[in-house]
Amino acid sequence: MTTEATTSTATWQGNEHYRRSWYWYDWANSAYVTTTATVLFTPYLTAVAEAAACPGLADGQTCRTNLHVLGVGIAPGSVAPFTITLATIVSAVALIFVGAIADRSPRPARLLGGFALVGSIAACLMALVRGTNWQLGVVLLIVANLSLGASLVVYDSILCRIASPDDRDKVSSRGWALGYLGGGLLLAVNFLMLSKPDVLGLDRGGAVRASMLMAGLWWAGFSLIPVIGMWRLRGVERPEVARTAGIVGGSLRQLASTFRELRLFPQTMLFLIAYLFFNDGIQTVIGQSSLYGQRELGFPETTMLTLFLMVQFVGFGGALLFGRLAQRYGAWRTVLWGLVLWTGVVVFAYFVPDRQVVPLFVLGVAIGLVLGGTQALSRSLYSQLVPKDREAEFFSLYQAMERGTSWFGTLTFGLVYQWTGSYRPAIVALAVFFVVGGALLARVDMRRGILDAGNALPHVV
């Protein structure tokens, strides 16, 4: 095989060099996801919003004054979850168009690089958010999350082109594991910076902003490895479409076709609905856990950084462990077991006592074990259900569920806090997403869905 060969004629063995490059995008974007989106930016944006609403607020005090946006009062503690909600609603529409365009792109790695560049620039600019300028933080968070989701539409669709059905669980799990390792390494550096900011001549706020800048630069720099390594990987060519429509018109036609065709794949549709629910729960736990730990449980930022650092390295092992379990029992069963564990995690989180480190770290170990495994296997599981040569379009629906329509969880979290003034009922309310998502996933007939999509059955379904 030459490097110019399309994926339709390439052998799986010949794609090994593409797989080695592909793994690195998990490593690249995980720095932003871990350091900025998960650990630092949510409580930082909350503090900036509180400074705007309640000037002179002392440490440990709760701001009870609302901010006003378009005449609507918003509690400063709800700004971050509501921003993520808005970002995901915007993405719900945008990512589906990205998928239609990506499947028509002759060079998917270049498209991946473009989205990664925009997202990493927004991530770097978060270092400029300070004082009371919470509005800039809101805009940058929306741009960064949208760009991340768009890049992952392209990235996930490439998995179908470079890995055989029997290898996808393993390849996807290795990518997630590498992502946790990379995110953990940068988080360890950031932890040292935040523990001793005076060594660098910074205050705590300056150390937070410097850490977010590093995460953006890490995302941009390491994205070069998959972009360059897969530079000559070709997309799916459709000359019959190209003759009648341009990139925009053809993409719109493809988009309409995708929605029509989705009805022909009922198992794929059922999986997406199930994924909508249980991924809502996962994404909300990831995005709001730092806020929960600091604002509800009373742990300092350094303790939360230590916790997330541990979760990253436990997640590395958890992703590989779930990959091994999937090879033996099948990804579908393994993900179902993972959702049972997730339900237990959020219920346990409700009962974690204030400022009690041991229960907190027990919770962190449980999260690390199931976090990467369920996400990695969900990606490979869905890859078996998408029709050949329509990968990016169908993965745009997957990303729309993951980062586009995954707003029920953050909305629920924000509303429960708005109504109760406590994050404890907000965190336990997320259990319903895992229960409903698991019940729907249990009804998916994987064997039938794979065959309906025209794909080969893996040895273990």
UniProtKB/TrEMBL annotation:
Transmembrane segments: 79-102, 109-128, 134-155, 176-195, 215-233, 262-282, 302-322, 334-352, 358-377, 397-417, 423-442
Membrane disposition: Multi-pass membrane protein
Keyword terms of this UniProt record: Membrane, Transmembrane, Transmembrane helix, Transport
Gene3D superfamilies noted in UniProt: MFS general substrate transporter like domains (1.20.1250.20)
Span of domain Major facilitator superfamily (MFS) profile: 267-461
Compartmental location: Cell membrane
Name used for this protein in its record: MFS transporter
Organism, as annotated: Pedococcus ginsenosidimutans
